[in-house]
Amino acid sequence: MDSFGAVRKLAREKHDAMKARAAGASSATALLAQARIAANAKVQAVPAEHPLLAGGDGALHRSGATPSVYVSNELAPDMAAYVEAHEFGHFWIETPIDPAVVARGSDPGAPEENSPTGIRRVEAYSPQELRERFANVFAREFLLPTPEARRLFMLGESAKQIADEVGVPLGLVNQQLAVALLLPESPEKTKKASDAPDLDPSQKEAAEHEGSPLLAEAGPGTGKTRTLVARIEHLLAKGVPPAGILVLTFSNKAAREIKERIATTSADAAAEIWAGTFHAFGLEFVRKFGHLEGIREPVKLLDQADQLQFLEGELTNLKLDHFLWLSEPAFALRHILGAIARAKDEVFSPEKYADAAERMGRAADHDEKRILRAQKTAEVAGVYRYYEDRLRAEGIVDFADLINRPIEILRNHPEIRDEIRGQYLHILVDEYQDVNRASALLLKELAGEGKTLWVVGDARQSIYRFRGAAPTNTTNFEKDYPNAKRKALAINYRSRKQIVDAFVTYADQMEIGRCRGNSLEAKRGLGTAPVNFNVARDREGEIAGLAAIINQYRAQGRDYRNQAILCRGHSYLQKIAAGLEAAGVPVLNLGDIFEREEVRDLLSLISFVSEPHRAGLMRAATLPRYRMMLSDVQKFLAVADEMDKTPLAALKALDAMPDISSDGKKALHQLRVDLDAIGFKTGPGQMLFDLLFERGLVRDYLPGVTPADQQRRLAIHQLLQFAAENDTSGQTDPKRQFLDWIRRLAVFGDDRSLRELPAAVDGIDAVRLMTVHLSKGLEFDVVHLPGLGRGMFPLSGGGGSVCPAPDGMLETPVEDSKAEEEECLFFVALSRGRDHLSLSRAERYNERGVSKPSLALEAIASHLPRPPNSAPTWTTTLPARAQDPLRPDLKVDGREHDGRDIETYDECPRRYLYQVVLGLSRSRQDNGFVHFHRTVYRVLRWLSQQTGAVDAAQIKAEFDARWAETGPVGNPLELVYRTSAEQMLERERHRSRSGIRIAETVSVNVGGHSVRLEIDEIEQTGRNLIVRRLRTGRAPSTPDQRLLHALMLEAAEQTLGGKGNFRIRYLSTDDEMPVKLDGVMQDRLERASAALSGLGQGAFPAKPSDDCPRCPHYFICRAVPD
Disulfide engineering: 724 pairs with which of 94, 446, 485, 685, CB 3.0-4.6 Å? Predict the structure, then answer.
């Protein structure tokens, strides 16, 4: 069986056949009764511990005269039906193993595809796992085909009613409904030109190579996967047993594609070949052999959330200084974990890390920057040592250990190494340029001298160095395997000759391509104007030009779905998406999935239930099903607060709320009914499935067939699958835990992996928008490359790492590696197009100045229709974009304002609306830092009011009292916060307060408005002022010239007269930093004036930023009831 689509097709065929035999009956009982007859199978219920079950819930035995299916007699009837159907799946798919066992506790509602985040992204499509996935999908589609699930639901039945009617588990129905209602029909797959059945001479020579390790150099479009599959077919034809072939890939998707292609000619062989990522292989390896080196069984693998939680729990033992970020400890720990993972990629032990830090310290001499870097490296080394010791003591592993620990086991246990080498007679590696150094060393242990090692890759396409990819593995291949050979694939089957010539010319100038032959024959020959280049006046003009040229290509027969826009980064992609949609061009781009409207609709309901102070009702009340007036929302929340109840609990007291309108009560009653089954322990996936398919909320999202409508449903599907994988159990509310995890994913940028789309989207006729990274391995009729300004693509500079690699760890200096990776990215981008490559740039991308052409354009100038610095050829502009509507009913008319509120408006007017106008919670997160910060300031205020010296006992007594009242008592990091607070206050106790005015309130006049500001400290000597703000954190690398500070300084000067200097005192380090505001004062006052004007109009637009996930209103943003 070659794919999940083929499995579904077979299951539907069997369903239809069994239904016909049952005279139209389609219950699970009727279908399975006919399946037994058709398969001539005996089905028997046996005790759960019966040996015939082999430890599972069900087992298919083929060895007797007739097939036998055994099912645990402890299963509920619906689960027994699923298990039996699962076994018939094994029977009809012709699973070769005997017995075929359904694992105990198998989940009929498990997502078909693993989420790209968390632990399941590691697990491979090993022969055994793939068989179980196929059988699981078969069981679902056989018992309840997706068209039937949709039909029943559209007739008005709920998920539970369908489950009861058919006689299957509710989880199975939910998954079938998710597919049937939310995903478009998958189109038939189209073959790439490079997948031609006949091998060309260079492919054939590579595929049939014998006698030594081989690196097949596969340039863009040369049929890399076809050649790799041909290699496997060659081995099978020679008599190599399928189980003796190991295929290691960069992604599970690639592994599945390889197995599917093999299955078209030999399904049995495909089922027995092991194909998956290095990490998936490592996971299977440590499950089998990890006990030899103290890894406990079952293997516990820490995912990102586990790692952070693990280190947060140990924060008091980590002895952090530079990386003790009290406001957000996890953020610093995340960077440290990244540094540790990077070290493990290089097999760089804690001892080596510490030694490197010591050498850096000795070499720093008196250079402060180098001293600081050495100190930070030493701090990371200490955490690395502690972390590694704890992992080993507890017998658990992290993601990087899935490579490093197998290396260790293979080196320490030669008998295991010999066993593995004897098991896998041939090893094939895909995308060898993206393999990290640790994986290359693991491969060396597996392959030995590599006589039967066959790898394929292209160093020019190495675009994952930020993940540890080491293209030096390709350049050093002969060093690692002295008898190795190289053979290059010679023909490009993808692109027109002019496109091939362009990227070959670029390759000749790449650092990594200069010393190799880059020429390729273009099989498809010359095209008509395949390379285009345009210049726009500005960014908006470039987007308008893109819209026009996309429609031009469409008029020539290139559907939207066959065109792609590739960008270096995500931010410009989002701007392009918005502009194209405004111009009427459909785009396929989920973007920041947690910031999509339909996703936030659902997350706001989870927030309403699990975050009582986050006012999720503000967004829920804008949904058609729960629509109510803002006044009713405010009254309800106020009454809930008065009753000291959570909003969810307050729904039960709805009848005792006379001031709420009848429409409001009707909406709240519907919400109460819909949430009736939701409890503290209900998981986020359970809650969403219940709301969508049991209560019917999904019906509001079903109308519409446009690409935008389809994407809305697709986004809900992605959220559902992600939520289902986070249905954890424990002492905390899993829904609250889920929302916290989403915030962290978004803050760290790890949510981008959720933008990977399922195959079902292929049928949506919309322009594909993606980063170059996501385009790897894809091809399109037309490729558009915008944003080709100097330093934008290829990207130059970029921020430095929070935890830079220690000296000596990396073979290639970081700066050189980044530059090479940028060249590789542009090379990949140039080579995705089949028929047309459309490049563009704008003369301006911001107000700061003219943007020069990208240096990459200069490199391929001879292939462009006009010079890179040509005058603009795109001169149209986009239609005006819709602005957030004004809310004059919520405008602020007052003439007096708090300065901090004005800064809030400047940062994000929508947040001002939520916090100041509507009175929602201001707390960014209900964490220990907020309480720590508040308590320190209370004691500082008390200290400022004391006359004379304050001894240690006095300040301790005051501190203890305030800590008990408002401190983070009971917080896991309480000791860290308390220790830091005591150190700060002890320093402040000794500090002279003579002549300092404490917590003085002053005002500044801005356009006739009075803006009040409370200043922590003011020192005045004659007409000279020092205006000081106290912060509990550390000094940033650049002065903090924010609006609030400019207002403070201006207010002090207006109120007290004289000339002031602004300073910030950072209590964590006792550092004081001067902040020069002269050069920005006018700008800041103009921004304050604009804020006051916006308040008077009722203008509260959202202002998205990287800081959004930290906002308390993240899940309700933009929504305000009428």
Answer: 685
